[in-house]
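During the reporting period the student researcher (J.K.) took over the structure-prediction task from the postdoctoral fellow and processed the backlog of single-chain submissions. One of the processed entries is reproduced below for the supervisory committee.
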Amino acid sequence: MFSFLFRYFRRYFGWAALAVLATLFYASSTVSLVYLIEPLFGEVLMASGEEMPEQVKLVGLGKAEEPDQESAVAAQELKHRARLWLKRSFDRGFFWLRARFGIDDARVVYFIPALFLLLFLVRAFSDFVNAYAFQEFGLRGTNALRNDLFRRVLAQSSSFHARHASGEVISRIVSDIAVIQTAISNRIADLFQQSLTLVVLLWVLFSKNSRLAAVCLIGAPAVIYPIVRFGRGLRHTTHRSQERMADLSNLVAEAVRGHRVVKAFGMEEFENRRFAEVTRSHLRVTLRGQLFANLSSPVVESVAVLGAALLFAWAGKTIRAGGMSTAGFLSFLVNLLMLYDPIRKLNRVNLVVQQSLAAVQRARSLFQVPIDIVDRPGARDWDGTFETLAFEDVRFAYREGEEVLRGVSLPIRRGETVALVGASGAGKSTLASLLPRFYDVTEGRVAIDGTDIRDLTLASLRGGIGLVTQETYLFDDTIRNNIAYGRADLPLDKVREAARAAFADEFILAMPQGYDTRIGEGGMSLSGGQRQRLAIARALLKDAPVLILDEATSQLDMESEALVQKALANLVRGRTTLVIAHRLTTIQSADRIVVMDRGEIVEQGSHQEMLARGGLYRRLHDLQFHE
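J.K. obtained the following structure tokens:
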């Protein structure tokens, strides 16, 4: 799992290194501020010779006053601490600075406060750099991950999108990646800072009393176990919570897209109940996760308090037996208590990390779905020229054992218009969807001049095919950008030329901002005929040699259909066209009409030939015109 994330974040490790360096400066300045307390008291606040409180001496370093008989234990403690590397380093650094800048006793009263201020500024700046660098690291890495995930989803075939609800996919791309980003940007900084703090404090703890520190560490597993146990529980519930969030996203997407159907059937309360049920399920799972998250700290603290009670009992017995001084134990205890804050924060980091691991699993699962339609090794580009494209003994099944197409063979000559007709479920749209490789054949092949289309690159194959469907999809953008889809640099004259050929220019110019009018998601501000004409203009501008018209006029009124038919006449001129239609009036002028029934071709010929033949086409024709 970490190797999965590594490939997205490794290019940004420079930011992580900067953050770690800032953490070191932060820790060093913090320690220096602590050790500067004694010189601050001794040489600034009590420069008149007043005796410094003993507890201040215990915190700082530098030259301590000679201990009298009564303070021998405290002096011994200071002597031991003086041997610490940090103390010696600070001593050398402090006195080097005084010598370097020529700070005598008269000016030290200004020097130490200035040094104090400088260290605070270094500490504050280091904290800022640390936080910002980890934000850069987290945001850039998760941005790369989200882009790659979106790219992979778009590369999947139509069968993938049939199996995965759009709300689920949206949730994984948006919500799950956001959880990962929060963990890395906001909590990794704590992980480094608090881990370093914990190590330093443990080092100091062992330097004071290694035997007592070892006794304390015996109880560490009792503290670590609930952290690990609650973390695993939180990861599991977070995974389920994200699944419920995907269900919520899907319900919202369906209700918003189908709001007219909801209102037409008076199903607002029904949809409200569906949504409330999913939110209740999400609430239950989320609250269970919060139970784990909020129980973790009290349990860890309770275990720690129990350990402290045992430590007090043991220390009291040892002190009374003369094995340890009271001052030594109190000094040790202060450092031991300082471990609480980093442990508490690391526990919180662990909880957030566990949540992010659940999100990583869900995002990673999309990467583990193989892309079943890809370029074959050695695939070549298609330049769009051909004489014949052919379906050769094609068989296809959406699910194993349920064939939708059964041995279909259909050659189509360049420039020919071929219409597919038949009852719903006959396999017309399925056959057409094999040409741009929305699906791949189960058996047989689709060929262009004898070359299997799987031996052509997907980009060049789809670039040579235009598509206008029954369910026209327009984007929440301007009319101009919808027609010139993906080619914003095209001059407006080219866009208008395509719109005029699609009989769309007039209604576009009548809109408030003309070609710069935004049309909303799916073009909902337009009529069905207007949407179809924009789709035709988009196909005209693409100027592909092959065209698929999938029931492009089936949902239009008579007036809109007449305009769309004129636009389609301009569109099909000079192109090889595959037309799918239920209205037989729209395909009577086709060069050839192919009748499909239950996944097979049962008739083909011209309109007049098949009327005279008296087969299935004649029955379909009579049914429509009788009605």
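The committee noted the following: Residues 261 and 326 are 79 Å apart (CA to CA).
J.K. will present the remaining backlog at the next meeting.
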